[in-house]
Each structure stands twice: as C-alpha cells, then as structure tokens.
Specification:
The structure is a single chain. The protein is α/β, with parallel strands linked by helices. It folds into two domains: 2-174, Rossmann fold (3-Layer(aba) Sandwich); 187-279, Pantoate--beta-alanine Ligase, Chain: A,domain 2, CATH 3.30.1300.10. The chain has helices spanning 7-19, 35-47, 75-84, 95-98, 112-115, 118-121, 125-140, 152-164, 194-215, 221-233; strands at residues 2-4, 24-29, 50-55, 89-91, 144-148, 170-174, 238-247, 262-270, 273-281. The chain has a six-stranded parallel beta sheet with strand order 1-4-3-2-5-6, with helices on both faces.
Length: 285
C-alpha cells in the first residue's frame, strides 16, 4: 500500500490506473478510522480494482468554535487499518496541499437541503464538505465513492452535488455501523466520559423505538419526533440541538401523514461532545 501526501503524486498514480483501465473506489475520511469506515473500505475493495482512502481533517468544515485542533489524528493506525482491509493508496495531504490558494474557490450546494438540521447551527460546514469532496473527486477520479448513513445530511447534499455537477461516478451510501449496545460508531466517541457514553445510548434507543412504532403503523411524524425528544430530554446529561424529520430524497418538508421514506434525525450534546444519529422510516416497504 502506498501512502501519498501530495496532489502531484496522487494524480500520477490515478493516471496510471486510468491508463490500465482500472476501476477506482474512493473512501473519503477525516481519519481516526473505526469499524464504520472499515465497512466502507471493505465494500470498496469488493466492488473496485483499486481503493483509495483519503485521510484529511478538513479545516473548512469546522466552525470557529468547533473541535478542529482537538479532532483525533491517528495516521499510523489509520494506515494499518486501511492496509489490512485492502486499500491500495492512503492519500494524507496537508491543509496547504489541499487549499493552495487561501480558500478563494468554493463549491457550495445552496437551498433548503443545507439550511436544515446541521446546516442551521453550522452554516459554513457543508460548503467545506462539498468543496473538499469535489477536490477529492477530481483528484481520484473514482468510479464509486463511499459514505456512511450516519452522516445522512452530508450524503443527501453530496448526492445533489454529484447530480448537479455531472460527476461521472456512483455515490454509495452504506448503513450505520453501531457498537454492540447500539451507539453509532463515531470518531468523536473517544471524547465521551464513561457516564456520557452510557447516557448517549438514549439516541439509538429512542430512534429504534420510533422506528418500531412506525413499523407498527404510526404515521404521524410529529408524534414520532416528540416521542424521541421526550426520551432524550429525560436524560440529564443530554442537551438537544435538534430532533427533526424530513422527506427523502432531498430533505424536503415531510407531509403528514408520512407516506414515502422519511429521515428522522437527532443532534445532541453530551458534555462538550456533539453526536448525531438517525433512522430512515421506510414508507415504501
């Protein structure tokens, strides 16, 4: 496996792949790899001739009061994991390598899809995501790119970007990977104290309960969201950012009663750690 740190060297490697007709799978990450990332790398390995994993803590998707400096950076361990799962290249550039022109050029998806959920409290976040991912798409020229459903809004925004900018690739979104007790895998879980981690289980528990009620016939999105909110509010260590639901695809306002697929999503702080989780209520089953 190669560890590549410059744009020039990645472009050379990708050019060689393209010359040989090699299909490429790209797994964009910010490192601190866990089993959720592992599921993406494994899927890419099965479906492509070559796999590129990017490890880049993207500064432009962090707000001024967020955890950029504290975000875990574990490149050596990330490379070991990526290699064990069959990656061919780990692309680990510096911020200057990815942003050589003082951030003068941006790719941005506007409208309601980026204004709701995390976009409401993190107004520059998705501009940073779409800019860096478009750069990675242009550099890696993947046939397929892999993302996790835990970042559901990100996945919807990137689907829109791929469609609107005619990126010639398939965007693959894979299910949330959870701990045995239900907590969604996240690089930020390492910030939680033992007490906070136990409290955070209310997220998966409340969402699973809402999904069970939906499957049993409840079609009021407002009632399901209120049930989730009440369960989370009952946890003393939890501070809610949002509990909301939107129609899929596109995160449009969901009509009542719910009919098609609906995303029920939460963002909650435990101490200083902000966690997100979600469930898709499959109305088309």
């Amino acid at each position: 496996m190669q560890v590549i740190k410059t744009v020039k060297d990645l472009q050379a490697a990708v050019a060689a792949y393209k010359k040989d007709g090699v299909s490429i799978g790209l797994v964009p990450t910010m490192g601190a790899l866990h089993e959720g990332h592992g599921s993406l790398i494994s899927a890419a390995r099965k479906e492509n001739d070559a796999v590129i994993v990017s490890v880049f803590v993207n500064p432009t998707q962090f707000g001024p009061t967020e955890d950029l400096d504290a975000y875990p950076r574990t490149l050596d361990a990330d490379c070991e994991m990526a290699q064990a799962l069959g990656a061919d290249i780990v692309f680990a550039p510096s911020a200057r390598e990815m942003y050589p022109s003082d951030d003068d050029t941006w790719v941005e998806v506007t409208g309601s899809i980026t204004a709701v959920l995390c976009g409401r409290s993190r107004p520059t976040h998705f501009r940073g995501v779409t800019t860096v991912v478009s750069k990675l798409f242009l550099l890696a020229q993947p046939d397929r790119a892999y993302f996790g459903q835990k970042d559901a809004q990100q996945a919807e925004v990137l689907k829109r970007m791929v469609k609107d900018l005619f990126f010639p690739l398939e965007l693959v979104v894979l299910p949330i990977v959870r701990e045995a007790d239900g907590l969604a895998k996240s690089s930020r879980n390492v910030y939680l104290s033992a007490e906070e981690r136990k409290a955070a289980l209310v997220l998966s528990r409340s969402l699973a309960g809402a999904a069970a009620r939906f499957d049993a016939g409840e079609r009021s999105g407002a009632a399901l969201a209120q049930e989730v909110r009440e369960q989370i509010e009952a946890e003393p260590l939890a501070t809610i950012d949002y509990v909301e639901y939107y129609a899929l695809p596109g995160l449009t306002e969901a009509a009542e009663p719910l009919t098609g697929d609906t995303l029920l999503a939460v963002a909650v702080r435990f101490g200083t750690t902000r966690l997100i989780d979600n469930v898709i209520l499959e109305g088309n089953k």
